[in-house]
Amino acid sequence: MKLFKKILLVIAIIITIILFYCVLNGYFLYKEAIDEKSINDRISNLQNDEHFVHYSDIPDYYANAVISIEDHRFYYHKGLDIISTLRALVTNIKARDIKEGGSSITQQVAKNLCFTQEKNLYRKIAELFVVYNLEKDFSKEEIFELYINNIYYGNGYYNIYDASMRLFW
């Protein structure tokens, strides 16, 4: 029994060291991104775009549709949807490949504001530091507003204004 406890202790120590290493690398990636340009400066640049669409100008049915598809627990979590993340993790482990994402709307805003689209564990951890700042400093409506003004809609359109003007008119 003592040997079993020692093995468990060694495994727990190894897992702790690996987690610490990953979080530290994620933090350094986050610091690099915000040292280059602060989150508030990135948001100000986005909001100062002449085609920035405010939340109040979005029909409720559109906001509800996007939230129900992208992150139906958006109003109930603090930026990280644990259920979606675990679901995606299990799916990806079973597939032995990245087949599904579990990012919340806030995580997608964090990624699009500060990072590349590269799929990387350290980037996912770095996103969480940005998510914390976003959820602390902005309302859910403001985060949604940032989301619709900074996501890819297809056909080369990266915000709701360009997409609606080019695709629907």
The structural class is mainly alpha
Helicity, in percent?
55-70%
Strand content: under 5%
| Total count of helical runs of at least 4 residues | 8
Domain module count: 1
Q: Outline the biggest β-sheet.
A: none
Please identify the oligomeric state.
Answer: single chain
Span of the ends, CA to CA: 72 Å
Give a quick rundown of the structure:
This protein is mainly α. It has a single domain (2-40, 54-167), classed as Penicillin binding protein transpeptidase fold. It has 8 helices and no strands.
Structure description:
It is built from 8 helices and no strands. By secondary structure, it is an all-alpha fold. It has one domain: Biosynthetic peptidoglycan transglycosylase-like (Penicillin binding protein transpeptidase fold, Orthogonal Bundle), CATH 1.10.3810.10. The chain starts with a helix and ends with a helix.
What's the layout of helices and strands?
Blueprint: H1 2-36, H2 39-47, H3 60-70, H4 82-95, H5 105-114, H6 121-137, H7 140-148, H8 160-167
Helix pairs in contact: 1-6, 5-6, 5-7
Provide keyphrases for this structure:
169 residues, mainly alpha, Penicillin binding protein transpeptidase fold, 8 helices, 67% helix, elongated
